[in-house]
Amino acid sequence: MARKMGFYGIIAYILYGFAVYWYLFYFADTNLPFEYEGSRADPATFMNGRELMLTEEYSKIRNLLFFLSTPFEWLFYFLILLLGLSKAFKKWAEDTSKNKYGQTAIYMIWLSFFAFIATFPLSYISYTLSKTYNISTQTFTSWMKDELIDFWINYAMMFVIVVVLYWLINKFKRFWWLFAWLLSVPFTLFIMFLQPVVIDPLYNDFYPLKNKELETKILDLAGQANIPAQHVFEVNMAEKTNALNAYVTGIGSNSRIVLWDTTLNRLSDDQILFIMAHEMA
């Protein structure tokens, strides 16, 4: 019965994948609305025919990978339960540690490791796709380092969440879900507070913006949007990507305005202010 259900799950995922592929590559209308043709919003006004073709092609493949990835994770966890691997992880944890927190940590490391291995091919395809279309400039070693950082951050967060959920279930058997929901709000805010100063620096190096005149203009704009940022930071992304980006992150005293160096190197101050106005809104 379990094998049959697993087989049906795999077939359903394959059919879903074909349906998404068919829609994106043969059915979806990617034409620009008539009223925007020839305007500044029309890519044809600043891109040649080959660039337009490559952009559309890249977008379709990226969207396909996006819509395949989450259902693939669902299928993976479904098969983990169905094929008895979850029981095996539990047994390994119980054989290794007598402490319940230790058992939880060991169970989750096995589950996270298998999930990492299962989803690695899709992640690698996404990486090579960005390299092929000259979006990414990141070396494999650097990319793999980021993947491993992702792994440990996600593992640590999930461990905390699972431990708290188990405690709530044992303490409040009837209304544990309500307390879990109530705790999710401060937990999310806490992570948002930590991210700019603890998590993000694990991936990249951040520096105060060297262009102080531009910083003053951006902070004036931030003040109008009630964003309590005191400084603007730039981050070295040229060694990882050719893409342009700017963003606002964090909350409270850890609010940060960040510009990629690729954006600073390729856009004028007015263009950067336009992007920042969009991000702040």
TrEMBL record:
Gene3D superfamilies: Metalloproteases ('zincins'), catalytic domain. One of its GO terms (biological process) is CAAX-box protein processing. This is M48 family metallopeptidase. Keywords: Hydrolase, Membrane, Metal-binding, Metalloprotease, Protease, Transmembrane, Transmembrane helix, Zinc. Residues 208-281 form the Peptidase M48 domain. Belongs to the peptidase M48 family. Its cofactor is Zn(2+). It comes from the Bacteria. One of its GO terms (molecular function) is metalloendopeptidase activity. CDD domains: M48A_Zmpste24p_like. InterPro entries: CAXX_Prtase_1 (IPR027057), Peptidase_M48 (IPR001915), Peptidase_M48_N (IPR032456). Residues 54-204 form the CAAX prenyl protease 1 N-terminal domain. The chain crosses the membrane at residues 7-28, 64-85, 106-129, 149-168, 175-194. Pfam families: Peptidase_M48 (PF01435), Peptidase_M48_N (PF16491). Binds 1 zinc ion per subunit. Zn(2+) binds at H278.
